[in-house]
Amino acid sequence: MRRFFWNGESEDESVIIKGDEARHISKVLRIQEGEQIILCDGQCNDFIASVERIESNSVNLKLLERVLENNEPSLNATLYLAYTKGERLDYAVQKSVELGAGEICLFTCKRCITSGNDRKLERLNRISVEASKQSNRSKLVKVTDGGSFSDVLLSAKGLKLFCYENETVSIKTIMGELSNDVSIMFGPEGGFEDEEAKQAIDAGWRSVSLGKRILRAETAPVAALSILMYQEM
Ligand code: SAH
Predict the structure, then answer these.
(1) Range 30-55 average pLDDT
(2) Nearest residue CA, atom 3 of ligand 1?
(3) SS (H, E, C) 200-216
(4) Which one in 13, 156, 158, 175 has a CA-CA gap of 20 to 30 Å to 146?
């Protein structure tokens, strides 16, 4: 059954969807009245719903039953990604959502050659919604701007992993310490400066290596999440 996100509002089990999601249901996928879909509120509340009425700009649905199982990992991984050029960020966000990231926070640091703006964030959030739907997730992964490197160093929670290209200590060594929350940080195309690595370690982050080869900024989060999600299999 296809999945769609809505804002969680309903009245007597009845839901009205408008905008992009409505168009996707009726025009793109040509779902017909009487068919069933899965509606997700983006916070892990999923329902089977029947399509009651399709109008030009909206779709009316009825919630039938709650779906108790979901595909969310028990590990809540927050990714801290330094701003990189457009396509790299698009790729990193799409793949990270597929792999089970819980949240994505962007930041600027010394070697960033680009920064954020509202349009970029909107675009990345759209990519995130599409990736959630495609990968059968029940959670909408928010992409936000966390500000500067120093800001995000202090706001992160759980076990904090600083992925550093000059590190020799493997990420493998911390696998036994994983609990509910993990924060993982990645640098931009030019990497982190030594001074930044020092600052992160002073703020309680653990510097880890993802292997002997240097990965591109958009590959590193994919590799790290694959390693961390191994324990969920
Ligand atoms: N230009 C830099 C590499 C930057 S890679 C250089 O040539 O040294 C971009 C980011 O990906 C890095 O800042 C780091 O966060 C992550 N990364 C890439 N390869 C890594 C590795 N082998 N171990 C840990 N982190 C890595």
Answers:
(1) 97
(2) 191
(3) HHHCCCEEEECCCCCCC
(4) 175
